[in-house]
Amino acid sequence: MKRKLSVVIPCYNEEENLKRGVLEEVWDYLKKQKYSWEVIISDDGSSDKSLILARQFARKHPGFRVLKNKHGGKPWAVWKGIEAAQGEIVLFTDMDQSTPIYEVAKLLPWFTKGYDVVIGSRGLAREGFPWYRRLMSTIFRFLRGIFLLREIEDTQCGFKALRRKVALEIFPKLQFFQEIDKPVKGWRVSAFDVELLFIAQKRGHRIKEVKVAWKDRDVAMGKKKNFLKESKEMAKEILRVKFNDLRGKYA
Ligand code: UDP
Ligand code: MG
After folding, report:
1. Is 103 near ligand 1, meaning CB less than 6 Å away?
2. Residues lying with their CB under 5 A of ligand 2, a single-atom ion
3. Which of 41, 76, 155, 165 has the smallest CB count inside 10 Å?
4. What is the pTM of this model?
């Protein structure tokens, strides 16, 4: 039978989440589905026990497999996972299950309605969002509104599905990868989503945004991140995509 869904989970130092049982949550849901699926855990060169834990899990759970990659940041791990995927539709989602896997049920029906890219949206009321992240996202949306992707309310939700065919066409066009010259150190997510969606839209793919449940589970777990640096990176990202477009990089 043709595989329908490939779930790609980038994984960078996720020992805490893995121990919390996030993969069990994914398994519990997917095993009940009638369609065929696979889960690809795309390890982003973790320096903790993530790789060992993920492999242990995959050994005991059919449909799960693990890819080992050099550390390159989230977008790179997602891309490696998509390349290895076999499903007609690929969903990428975060290990922390900020958007629980069962929300995929809200995304899938839109593919039969002719959409190529179906993305989760966190809406405006974000549970567990501290004030500085709220402020950051307001500024980000304001900038994006001026320059590109005006119709999309939330480009940054880590829960996105694409037809694999379309993903294979768009990802290689990401200038994001071409512009990485320095080796990536430490945690890196950054705004590749904007570029991804922009290219998809430019190439005439239909994008559907669907409201999904979302709860920022790392903040609750006290992970420390430099949000100011992230905001600056995102603003730069929007300008970068706009600039690349003007130079005809996405033609
Ligand atoms: N991630 C990754 N490489 C990195 C940073 C993050 O592969 O350098 C993965 C991480 O394991 C998770 C997803 O990307 O599955 C999103 O990371 P996180 O939940 O920390 O980000 P946030 O919730 O702040 O967007
Ligand atoms: Mg998260």
Report:
1. no
2. 94, 96, 98, 218
3. 165
4. 0.89
